[in-house]
Amino acid sequence: MKVIIIGAGKVGTYITKLLLENKHSVKLIENRENIINKLKSELPEEVLVHGSGTDPSILEVCGIGDTDVVASVTGADETNLVASTIAKFEFDVPRVIARVNNPQNAWLFNAGMGVDVGLNQADLMAHLVVEEMDLKNMLTLMKLNRGNYSIVQVKVDSESGTVNKALRDLSIPVKAVLISISRGKEVIIPRGDTVINAGDIILAFADKDAQVVINQLFGSNR
Q1: Is the C-alpha dihedral spanning 35, 36, 38, 43 positive or negative?
Q2: Cα–Cα distance between 154 and 218 in angstroms, integer?
Q3: What pLDDT digit, counting tens, does each position of 96-117 carry?
């Protein structure tokens, strides 16, 4: 699958890493040169594109003509809307995903603006409250589509039975993929021999049922 991600903030970077881990073709567009330079130590240079995601010439350089998905996840709603409109109506991209930063703008993110899926984080959090999910340990960062899969963040509790154990020895749900582990200023790509520490912040991609298991696994056993 060919994907263009617009916006190299935390969300865009994590999604890019996840897609690359799963062998997809990805281009990550970012207009801030300092961010591009910083990411050169984390991502292959051929993935990174310096420029505006609302510039058709930049999108063409990224191969938008045969791209399967465009996801505009910048921190500016106006940028995400313009990029979505161009991707859908000028280049006929099959699936366009846009991040909604201001909940008051959610009504704009619709098919008429070229958006197939609007990712409203405030709305997701409201649903979590209504569904009485455990918000102490788990935070949903972004729901990627109309299905049950989301990117979630979990902090490892000091009382968790996973502390000091290698990932290969843990029962990670089949429908969950660990994307990264943040430990202080260090970001670790999870491997089988990666040992879990108390206080680790784990980023995972999981469906609704797997999210519950992940939260129980890395949360307190008390």
Answers
A1: positive
A2: 7
A3: 999 998 888 988 999 999 998 8
Distance CA(204)–CA(170), nearest Å, equals 14
Using alpha carbons only, give the angle 21, 157, 214 rounded to the nearest 5 degrees.
45
The pLDDT tens digits of the residues spanning 151-161 come to 888 899 998 99
Q: Which CATH class is domain 2-119?
A: alpha beta
Look up the pTM and report it.
0.60
The pLDDT tens digits of the residues spanning 26-71 come to 999 999 999 999 999 999 999 999 999 999 999 999 999 999 999 9
Task: Name 165's Cβ contacts closer than 8 Å, sequence gap at least 6.
Answer: 195, 196
Residue with tokens 């910083």: 38
- CATH (residue range 133-218): 3.30.70.1450
Contact indicator for 6, 81 with CB cutoff of 8 Å: no
The length of the chain in residues reads 222
Helix/strand/coil for 184: coil
Sign of CA dihedral 41, 18, 184, 171: negative
Q: CA 30, 153, 68 angle in degrees (round to 5)?
A: 45
Domains in the chain: boundaries = 2-119, 133-218
